[in-house]
Design brief:
The structure is a single chain. With 209 residues, the protein is α/β, with parallel strands linked by helices. It contains six helices and twelve strands. The chain has one domain: Rossmann fold. 33% of the residues lie in helices and 33% in strands. Strands 1, 4, 5, 6, 7, 8, 9 and 10 form an eight-stranded mixed β-sheet that branches. It has a two-stranded antiparallel ribbon with strand order 2-3. The chain has a two-stranded antiparallel sheet with strand order 11-12. The chain is globular and about 60 Å long. It starts with a strand and ends with a helix. Its cofactor is Mg(2+).
């Protein structure tokens, strides 16, 4: 899976251990998710080509600097993706933001969209799609479908953990998507949770059940 980039780093492994730990408090969990999200988007933006030169003056001398132009649209798959959003935007402050509310309904065995809000000009814009966990990948595949219906450009997904089957499912339907993650989980249990995973990211971020 060449489109999947596993960001293996001692600091990320250290932080992932705290995210997995059920005794990590919610406020700590939120802060670590933000820290990990910054590193993931740093990697996702590594090959960014849209830069323009600008003349500036340091305290010592005049010089040239670079500014990002045509910034990506950062899209959160609610609600767990919102836990990553501020951190990603802090790294790309000129980026605009979109939101997709979507979930998998276990009774109808299909995804249900309840909210979709994008900036006006999305055509051909690169997308950074945020979702902390990819398990069955039903919701993220549906989200990518919707984005492509709007004619967006390249889509990059940042996710803290992803299942092997979920990644295969995404790339089956969308082989052009790039995915950046900290670790690939081999199992999903009967309730659809990653194993060993870290539980329900939304519940742990926002102290809900």
């Amino acid at each position: 899976m060449n489109q999947v980039k596993v960001i293996d780093h001692p600091l990320l492994r250290h932080k992932l251990g705290y995210l997995r730990d059920k005794d990590t408090y919610s406020h700590e969990f939120r802060e670590i998710v933000k820290e990990v999200s910054k590193i993931l988007v740093y990697e996702a933006m590594r090959d960014w080509k849209h830069l323009e030169p600008i003349a500036i003056e340091t305290p010592i001398a005049k010089t040239m600097a670079e500014r990002i132009v045509k910034p990506p649209i950062v899209v959160s798959i609610m609600r767990a993706g919102n836990g990553m959003l501020d951190a990603v935007l802090s790294m790309i402050p000129r980026a605009s933001t979109g939101f997709i509310g979507i979930y998998r309904d276990k009774f109808i065995h299909n995804t249900v969209e309840y909210y979709f809000k994008m900036p006006q000009d999305v055509q051909n814009k690169e997308i950074i799609l945020c979702d902390p966990l990819i398990a069955t990948a039903d919701t993220i595949v549906a989200a990518i479908d919707r984005l492509k219906n709007y004619g967006v450009g390249k889509i990059k997904v940042i996710s803290i953990l992803a299942s092997k089957t979920g990644l295969e499912r995404i790339l089956h339907f969308h082989p052009d998507v790039e995915i950046y993650t900290v670790n690939i989980e081999e199992q999903i249990n009967e309730l659809g949770y990653l194993v060993p995973g870290l539980g329900d990211a939304g519940d742990r971020l926002f102290q809900t059940k």
